[in-house]
Amino acid sequence: MPAYLLLLPILLPLVSGALLYFLGRRFYGRRRVLVAVTVCLNTLLTWALILFCGEESFRILNLVWDLEITLRFDGFGRFFAGLVATLWPLTTFYGFGYMDREHHKNLYYAFFTMSFGVTLGVAMSGNLLTLYVFYELLTLVTVPLVMHKMTRKAVRAARIYLAFSIGGAAFAFIGILYLAANGVDLAFLPGGSVRPGGSDGMFRLIYLIAFLGFGVKAAIFPMHRWLPEAAVAPTPVTALLHAVAVVKSGAFAIIRLTYYCYGTDLLAGSWAQTAALCFAMVTILYGSYMSLRQAHWKRRLAYSTVSNLSYVVFGALLMTPVGLTGSLLHMLFHAVIKILGFFCVGAVLCNTGREYVTQLEGMGRRMPVTFVCFTVSALALTGIPPLPGFFSKWALLTAAPDAQSAAAPFGTAVLLVSAFLTAMYMIPTAVRAFFPSRDADLAGLDGVREVSPVMWVPMAILAAMTVALGLAAGPLSDFVSGLAASAF
Amino acid sequence: MSFVLNFPAVSIVLSLAASVASVAARRWAKQISCLVVVLGMAMSAAVLAYTASAGAAFTYVMGQAPAPWGNELRIGILEPLFALLFGLVLLLCILSGETTLSEKADPKKRYLFFVLCDLIQASLFALCYTNDLFTSYVFIEICTIASSGILMIRDNGPTATAATRYMIFSLVGSSLFLLGVIMLYGVTGHLLMEPLRKAVASVWAAGTYRLPLRVIIVLLVVGLGIKSGLFPFHFWMADTYGTSLPGAAGILSGIVSKGYIFLLLKLVHRVIGPDVFYASGAQNVLFLFGVLGMIVGSISAIHTSDVRHMIAYSSAAQIGYIYMGVGISPALGTVAALFHVLTHALTKPALFLSASRLADVSGGSNDFHALQGSAHRNRVAGIVFSVGSMSMVGIPAFMGFISKIQFALAGAQAGAKMLPTFIALAVSTVLNVLYFMRTVIRIYTPAPEQGEHVVRARQQLVFDGTALCFIGLNVAIGLFSQPVIELLGRGLALLG
Amino acid sequence: MTLTLFLLTVVLPVLAGALLPLLRPGRRVLRAYVAAVTAVVLAAAIAAALHAPARLSLWRVSDALDIAFSVDPASRVFSLLAAGLWLPVGVYAFSYMAHEEREARFFGFYLMAEGALLGMDYAANLVAMYFLFELVTFSSLPLVFHTQSREALAAGLKYLYYSVGGAFLGLLGVVFLTRYAAGLDFVPGGGLLDGAGNRPLLLAVVFAAVVGFSAKAGLYPLHGWLPTAHPAAPAPASAVLSAVIAKAGVLAVLRLLYYVVGPGYLRGTWVQYALLALALLTVFMGSMMAYRENGLKKRLAWSTVSQISYILTGLFLLTAQGLVGGLLHTLFHAVIKTGLFLVAGAVIVRTGRTRVDELRGIGRRMPGSLWGFALLSLALVGIPPFSGFVSKWALAEAALDGGPGALAWLVPVVLLVSALLTAGYLLPIVTRGFFPGRDLPFDCVAAEAGPAMLVPILLTAVLSLALGVGAGPLTDALTAAFAGIGG
């Protein structure tokens, strides 16, 4: 299939979303159909392209000098696109059920759909500049979603998100332009394009700046603040965008920068790698620690995302094939696991309005599907075999001692401490739901029922996916290893 | 010599004539203005096409007396290009500012607005084309007075104060400029730019009058800097732009300040010469003040709660970008600065005009909090404001992004200035986001209770049309900027 | 390990247990179900022990991650122990749990825990063992939670944290050692690749891993969960926790020291000294705390803390003799402590009393139980000819023969002191139970425990005597099986 078809899955949701925004109010009843059809069609289209598209690049336009906007679908891009495309329809259907009780639905449907196209644009970018463009667009198109509730808190969260994101991108921009000005090819090539030579020190400094710039979206400490604030958005938004699309785009961008733009020759073993690793490790611990301190369920999971994203970044920064394998596996696993977790939170929120973990005692009997799914998510996230979280952590743990940086072996301890903290902040919630204390007040639970099928079916599917991913860890690891090896 | 080369002189004379005619035929003042502007644009476009294809600059002698006594115009690529730009923005401002004009100004004085616009057009064209220092000074003064005039159209207390303040500062700037011209004449004995260049070069090389030359450079730069709003002379901008008619604010911030900058660039390249200028150390000062302006302007913008003041401070910041570019290098940096002149001229008026429309549907208040939800009440204005903001911040697909790229590329090749440039660009982007995007979010946040729904006011169609022009140009050049950049590069080479 | 036997010993109980809460059977059906499953498992375990089956690779994820099972001497010991105790305790539990709610849930997890334990016993490499170790934790967790009282929930969470935290420390070791071990599977005598890696780092890792896995075995400083979990759980659960589940920690340590790293690598190093010090400290501390504790089950829990560290002491001696001593005590302590907890449970059911000072004169009402308690106490203290004596003697001997440096003589001293304390915290219960003195506070008209409870109690008491008498052949068999392991 020719490469220009890559434009289709990007444009279709954008057009559809724009239509919804301007004409949505007239379509009242049929809005959902349009959204569902668009999303599902787009997913199919994306998968068709993943399987059959050629590897050549397609130039959309030449911006200025030799800076071009191009699309190209390589292995890594397909991996990310596949992940995103599979999870979007599930979230869409879940969203139908969830948003029933909310206002401003038009805004939600329109921008939710548009985000799909833009995220795919990120996946399909053929060079660093294109990635940057879609990256900025992603920020813009998700801000209305964060702001959705239009309360003071929501607006404030949107402002913080916007400021951090564009600010981060501004610093990443420096990196991109420096590379362009110094004749480095911005196109994504396995093994990168920066060779050790004259101004190594400067290149490494610029790498660190760009890393921190992209790291804002990847919620690296201390630029992570926007993520817990964004938890104020409706749950489908938090689940998909802030556990998958937006934050994973940040990690995706960092991996692209490190492996496909710079290449590990210049960076492995350098002070830049060590510095970046330190940021990742601090974030892992900080995120886990803050999760523990949150009583608000959604914010707890948001901080957990902060921590887990840095697992992915940590793995990528190890700059070894095994490290990258662990990173990619965790990118995949965490996406599924965390979406599932957020869905459960949303289900409870939707049905009972309860937001705090202390309010969940005994709910397991009332909402069994929800809490069984949450238990699966909790165990998987902690890394209990045979659920998938174990395998990605295993890869990261075994890769850490081999990396060239002096800081890497500490990562083993950091990962294990974080895993322990994860057990502490995820599992007790599941326990209390199913084993309420004898003298707990369960009268308040009268009338609480399980959510509607349009919400629990996606949850069940995700839970099944989680288990399946764990059981399929063998072939999956092999596939991802191949993918990782091809990046060097 | 082609017939086309008469056009610049014709366009200047035409504008002057139109201003006189408008005084006489008051009822037709607006139509005369628009016609003259359109004609001026057409003529500039023709000249540009001619010089661009010819690839050379031409000198046009006015009157019969040869140099160094007579008067000259010099027509390259940049001159008609910027004349065209100024004409375009002037037209758009006149058209879209009309509503407010008719609502807020004294009906008997309305025609004066157009008269003054004609004068501004004449002076800006003259500043673009002239090859003579004294002529520049004359038209600078005409421009100053005309600008102060359109500020005063509204004729109430704050406006009068603001206009007076503007006039005083402007005159200080002009005086410094005049002093510089006089000293230069004293040192070299010339007023025409070409001979001046040779004279200055020889004086510098001889090493005799280095200090006076430095002083001259300072006077010229500071003089024009004050008038265009370079840090630390930017503080008159807030009140001036804040209280005037939006059309006036658009004209002043969009093109008048740019006229002075263009003149400064002509001076640097054609009078002092880039070698002398960039060896004198003046470029470092420009760079420093440019960067400071970028930062301080944005910080001031963050702290104000009046949206017009915010846009005005933003102008200070954007002028800072331009001067930073000039300070970086004579080639790549100045091209970046020129492109940013283009960007700012096309964006800032749009911001002022849309902000005023938004204020109109918010009970006439410019206060930040009153504007909440206004984008839902006037959709087109909201979109224009958002596009303008995104261009200022530097979101890809808009001109501002290309500006940033140009500045960064120029900075990357500037040795020691690279890191400060990068950091300044990044920090400035962040600051811009803080106040622009905050406002964009606010205008889209629904207001607690719906205010008056002013939908489809009479002149909305005209506003929509001009808005579309602004946005369209911004996006078009944002996406397809390469030809424009190349043209600027070629033009710059021909400037000296 | 053939597939059938594996299915019967591991998969069957896990699945049966998982299904049980969903089926919601009546009480009779429930009991029959549980009894049947545990009986089948026992039979299968015996068959597996007698067999000499080949290695079964259940799930191969990659070269390093190969979940495989096989039967070797260590497996035999632990699996027979688990399967052997699970049935009688299960029968006891029928009667005990009649007084609690949610029986189906309890027995469901009871069965799952059995399957997990047996799986862990049969694991053929560190990774498989780690997998099953986690499963053991999570399947036994609901047993602690069962009563859903505040204490039970708090205790359960504590158990969770300690176990999971310890397991992650152990995982640290697993990660490092799978790279440096001579073979990925368990090899008797272990053996790291020569010149492998950074020795100080590896020593530190091994130390951390052992401490981590020992959390399940209640080694100081990770013993904190034991004294809270045991009193909170129902008595049959406490019994298996002490007797078998805690031994999972022992098994993990055993595998790590003797089948992966190899005793030779560690003998004489700071790791051995440190571990022995911790173990001896725990022995003493456990006994001391038991002596001072007034709650019966908690006293028994502290006793477990102490006694399991006897076993660990034996293991940390890093000689075949020490290992054999440790294994003997594993078996004997399991039987004894089971019995003791069963008695405690019977007392709670019949009289509702949980504190030691409330038990004066109980001999009148529940003579059978108290006789059983008496015999078991003698065994635990180490009075010949009871089994406890044999294992303690073996441990002391092993220490004197092969212990490192100064600790060689310290071990028997500590064991002796602990024995005295053991006497101090167990025997008075018996004496005061039978001879309460003139002012008899006992006014409760309680009767003896039912046969379902009494029989298992007496069984364990008799067994602890029999094992002691017939210890000779057992010791020889063990010594032969683990001959070459000292390395």
Structural summary, described in words:
The complex is a heterotrimer of chains A (488), B (496) and C (487). Chain A has 488 residues and is mainly α. Chain A has a domain at 268-488. Chain A has 19 helices and 2 strands. A two-stranded antiparallel sheet of chain A has the order 1-2. In chain A, α1 (7-23) packs antiparallel against α4 and α2 (31-52) packs antiparallel against α3 (75-98). Chain A is globular, with a radius of gyration of 21 Å. Chain A starts with 6 loop residues before the first helix and ends with a helix. Chain B has 496 residues and is mostly helical. Helix content of chain B is 77%, strand content 2%. Chain B has 20 helices and 2 strands. Chain B has helices at 7-24, 29-54, 78-104, 110-129, 133-152, 157-188, 193-206, 210-228, 236-243, 246-272, 274-279, 282-303, 307-328, 332-360, 374-377, 379-393, 399-412, 418-444, 460-479, 482-495; strands at residues 58-62, 71-75. Chain C has a domain at 268-487. Chain C has helices at 3-23, 27-50, 73-97, 103-122, 126-145, 150-180, 199-213, 225-232, 235-261, 263-266, 270-292, 296-316, 320-351, 362-365, 367-381, 387-402, 407-434, 451-469, 471-481, and strands spanning 56-60, 66-69. In chain C, β1 (56-60) and β2 (66-69) form a beta hairpin. At the A-B interface, β1, α5 and α6 of A face α17 and α18 of B.
Spell out the key features of this protein.
heterotrimer, A: 488 residues, mainly alpha, 19 helices, globular, B: 496 residues, two-stranded antiparallel sheet
Structure at a glance:
The complex is a heterotrimer of chains A (488), B (496) and C (487). Chain A has 488 residues and is mainly alpha-helical.
